[in-house]
Probable peptidoglycan glycosyltransferase FtsW
Amino acid sequence: MLKKIIKSYDYTLVVAVFLLCSFGLVMVYSASMVIASAPKFGENPSFFFDRQKVALLAGTAAFFVTMILPYKIYASKKILLTIVLGSVAMLLLVFVVGHTANNAQSWIMVGARGIQPSEFTKLSVIIYLAAVYAKKQAYINQFGIAVMPPIIFTLGICMTVAIQPDFGTAFIIGLIALTIILCSGMGIKSLGKLILLGFVTAVLLSPLLYILSGGILSEGRMGRFLGFMNPFEDEKNGYQLVNSYIALGAGGWKGLGLGQSIQKFNYLPEAHTDFIMAIIAEELGLFGVLFVLLLLAYIVLRGFQIARKCTDSFGSLLAIGISSMIAIQTFINLGGLTGLIPITGVTLPFISYGGSSLLLLMASMGILINVSMFTNYQSMYLTKEKQPQSQPARSFQKNYVSYR
């Protein structure tokens, strides 16, 4: 029984995740060593590296816990309610005791470290939507009682995150939710109603957004949009994007060499966070960029393949949500540093500096691998055994398949 479970794990995903994390740890050190040498960081070149290393250790623990824990436990009423209420409480707590950094009140300080609740809200929304829509499969096309309630809840979460303000994370949560909703099994009529509802909501909220724009869309945030439109003409607002272009172009095919970046010498702001790919391109060239992109692409495509093979609605929607989260976040990060979209401050999954983001991603990947294990076990053993009610099968079904 145990040997079959061990054989059912997707070890290629495990390897891909830890390759990315290890590579990210090296690049965090390289990209941050200059800024970390400043007096406010104790003149310690490994300041950010050490903090990221601790986050990776915590993330590794979370990864193995969620990889072993039966994924269906998250769909139980008590666990699901705890996840949802805990996530909402943490988001609201930010407005009471939140710490402001980079013009956003998005962190809660625990000692010398900050926790960003909005990061963990991504996984909470994925679990909530997957559980709710999995339970509503029998009447998924009844728009009023099946589709609308989860959408209203998700909109509330997105608005709460947006007014921190953290538009990048709010946008990601919204797109993840939309992906899960579109894959939930609703018919064309329900989809049409959803599109119409979205259009009407946007029209009705436009006056409110205009009124609040003065407080939420500060000069710095508006500068991101202005700099995105004309980075070379707007010296002030386009500074970061122009230096990103310089880093991307300087690396060529092979790069300048690990640790040899010039832009990290206080030319490119946030080099170790949302612009770390620019440093990778400068130091390791196109080969370094392709290494990261191919591993991320493998994780995303493998996740969607797991969703397609999984016969359980909850597991399938979980895999879709986690895979889309990584894909969306990657696109927004790369779109910002290449000028395809305005800069949002979103980190590159598994690579950028950020403890909350890394911990969330590792826990999410553990869940995805657990879904994969269940799916592989079912396809390799349960469907092939001549006596499906044998003791090993009954034991597995009790612990993994039929968990309540």
User: Anything to note?
Assistant: The first strand starts at residue 99 and ends at 101. The chain has one domain: 2-186+218-401. The radius of gyration is 22 Å. Confidence is low (pLDDT under 50) at residues 385-404.
